[in-house]
Amino acid sequence: MKTLSLITALLILFTHTTLSQQAQDALRPDLGDKLGTCDACGMDVFERMLTRVEITTDDETFYACGMGCAFGMTKEREGTSMKVVDFTTMSLIKAEHALYVTGSLLSPVRAMMPVFAFGSNDDAEAFVNKYGGTVHRYVPFKELVLTIRKERGR
Predict the structure, then answer these.
(1) Element (H, E) at 94
(2) Cα–Cα distance for residue pair 113/42, rounded to 1 Å
């Protein structure tokens, strides 16, 4: 009788675990193809990640999971250019031309600093009106991120 109870319990546990994994898979957003791994933190970087940064040097392209890691990765590399994902269009735009929203109600997963990039001031302001936060231009935003990295010892 104990064996039958044990088998039943194992069957219920297996079914529950399988259904739970299926539920998790159904809720997981489609992030597209994996592009690489963030050199700074080791996080996988996918093509449709809202915080993805594409960094290009003269001889290579690599990816960061967000601007906090990107600034840390590029400060010693000369001749780099960065592109970020525009929250509104999901297209890549030059990082130095983007506007950045911090402190909104929305928070990207595993980001050092919850931040979204926008290609236009109107889009950034509309986002802030809906979800809160503060709009930053590139240079002040970079200074803010580097200060936070320094304070965190990164």
Answers:
(1) strand 92-94
(2) 16
| CA–CA gap between residue 69 and residue 10 (Å, rounded) | 43
Give 95-125 as a DSSP string.
Answer: GGG-EEEES-S---TT-SS-EEEESSHHHHH
What does the pLDDT look like over 74-101, one tens digit per residue?
766 666 789 999 999 999 999 999 999 9
Q: Which two tokens stand for residue 96?
A: 């130095």
pLDDT in tens, 48-60: 888 999 999 888 8
Give the amino acid at 131. Answer: Y
Residue 61: CB atoms within 10 A of its CB come to 12
Alpha-carbon distance of 149 to 68, in angstroms, equals 7
